[in-house]
Structures are given as C-alpha cells and as structure tokens.
Amino acid sequence: MNSNKETLDENTIRKAKNTAESYLKNNYKNIDKIEFSDNYSSPMAGFMIRGIVNNNKEANFSIDMDVNNNFEIGSVGTGEKFPDMKEECKDEDCDY
C-alpha cells in the first residue's frame, strides 16, 4: 500500500488516529493533549502516524501502524521530553 494522504481515505486516517490516541493514553503517563501531523509516509512504504503531546514539540512521537491488519501497532518512537511509560505497560503493551 502506498501510504500517503492522497491514497488513504478519511475513515482509515480517523481510525488510525483513534488507535494511536488510545495507545498513547493507555500506555504513557500524563498525556493530556495529542496533536497529529498530516505526514503519514514511512521509509518502509508503510503507514506512520506522527505528532506531539501536551503542546510540546520535544514530546513528539512516531507510530508505525499496520492499517491492513486491524490497525496493529508495530513500533513507537518518542522524543526526548515524551512522558514516561506507565509501569504496568513496560514489559507488555497495555490494551488500546
């Protein structure tokens, strides 16, 4: 799938954002606000959703997501000032 904004429908993007928001709020501490970027491209030709939390550009994130497999999250990258992961979610992802 060539994942850029032009080829993804609004429903897919909405579901991806909802999944990402649920994952971040359930697995990390003190997430009050999430802002998403409009760039969904991934170097591996997949789907990558990016953004920042709590109005802090240094609390950025990028989430590699499989939109063809029930929006499963493959990997998460976080910036220097991103909130800490919840203790109970460190060994295994909490539900999202």
Walk me through what this model shows.
It contains 1 helix and 4 strands, in the order αββββ. It is globular and about 35 Å long. The protein is an alpha+beta fold and 96 residues long. Strand 2 and strand 3 form a beta hairpin. The longest helix is centred in the first third of the chain and has 18 residues.
In whole angstroms, the N-to-C terminal distance is: 24 Å
- Enumerate the strands of the largest sheet in spatial order, edge to edge or round the barrel: 1-2-3-4
Total separate domains: 1
Indicate the structural class.
alpha+beta
Give the overall silhouette: globular
Q: What do the pLDDT scores average to?
A: 89
The helix count comes to 1
Helix content: 10-25%
Largest sheet: 4 strands, antiparallel
Q: Tell me the radius of gyration.
A: 13 Å
DSSP strand content? 25-35%
Name the CATH homologous superfamily.
folded 79 residue fragment of lin0334 like domains
Which CATH top level class fits? Alpha Beta
What is CATH's topology name? Nuclear Transport Factor 2, Chain: A
Unreliably modeled segments: 1-6
The arrangement of helices and strands along the chain is HEEEE
Report the CATH architecture. Answer: Roll
Overall number of strands: 4
